[in-house]
Specification:
seven-stranded mixed beta sheet; Aldehyde Dehydrogenase, Chain A, domain 1; globular; alpha/beta; 15 helices; single chain; about 475 residues; Aldehyde Dehydrogenase, Chain A, domain 2; six-stranded mixed beta sheet; Aldehyde_DH_dom
Length: about 475
Amino acid sequence: MSHLLFNDSFINGEFYSTDKNFSVDDPATQQSIIMVSDVDDIGVHKAINTAHDAFIKLKLTNATTRSNVLMRWYDLVMQNKQTLAELMTKEQGKPLKEALGEVDYGAAFIKWYAEQAKRSYGDVIPATDNNHRLTSFKQPVGVVAGITPWNFPIAMVTRKVAPAYAAGCSFVLKPSEHTPLCALALAYLADQAGFEKGAFNVLLSEDAPRVGKILTESNIVRKFTFTGSTGVGKQLLTQCASTVKRTSMELGGNAPFIIFDNADLDEAVTGLMGAKFRNGGQTCVAANRIFVQRSILDQVVDKLAKKVATLKVGNGFGENTDIGPLIYPKAKQKVQELVADAKAKGAIQISDDVQLVDSFQAPLILTGVNPKMDIYHQEVFGPVVSIIAFDEEAEVLALANDVPYGLAAYFYSQNIKQIYRVSEALEYGMVGINEGLISNPVAPFGGVKQSGLGREGGYQGLDEYLEEKYVCIKL
């Protein structure tokens, strides 16, 4: 991975260093991977200004040119798939097999938007008289700034940068301080692919509030995109209001996973394993509250316990590892506090109470979870299954919707009438039916309520970086 391992911010096609450094650590070993430089305010403003210069050039390019550049970026990412996956496992901790899958997933966004670049269609509007011609067309919004999280250090970047470039926008990215190395590698490969200098700048910093404040309050930055917690998202939205920026926010979730008594139980449990334990439960769409109809509760718990018992926790480079470490020790502490609170309030742990060192957390199953417990209301972001029994469809729909979040929901049923009823009644931006892994570059990803604004993926993801212009011509 050495040829894609960098330690400075990437601005205007060059690496930018400062005297202030911080460590990027391996969550599996707690050892430093590399020391990287912390960008100063001068560097942040330089990134914004060079992104503006790049935008002036980029907006004049045609869609085919941008499409070709994105395809070259896609090819370079795929050529370096193994190296990028190893870099991801090293800085993020997820099993290498999952990291390889994420490179494919992240690259798929680049390819999709290389294709979509040529499809930002306008409209010819039927005029109301013979003396006018009415049309509308789309133009790039301008300089984009974004902040991405640590849990998907490649896919969260390409899902934002690829549609922005396809639309003709330049980008200033602040990746998580825990996983900046993949972002730097992606920016370097984008530069090699022919991105305009300054069209993809990456800022490294431990001080996200400082960098975020400059980006959100800049008059040059016209669009801001963020993936992360609802609390931070609200603060960023407040800051963006000062310059009335376009925003897209993919925020927190509290995903229900419902198993009805007519479901195929083996398929349901298999789907739950993917929805819950992918990336060790550290995903915004992870199944958080598992609702099981009471008549099948014992069967589901038994089948689930057998599968969970086979999961192997360990270093992501281990050949048979299913669950890597949590991102840092405080994440493990939070999970254990939620479990302790639930057990103190009556939840029953049916899986073995295995204590692991450092940031490694053994998968757990809790039954008897109820709304009095903190774990019912908070994203666990860890490998803990919280099971809640229910009796009737109306009951579980009320419980599933009675949260301020609305990102993803899942349910298993073989009743076609129920499938229509429940899919329409769930107050969530995405619903998986008899499927636990729903993310797809060709489909819109995003939530409702306090889970965010806007969509990523699909043709909708390109529209997030375009402005509609109406033109009225008098003949």
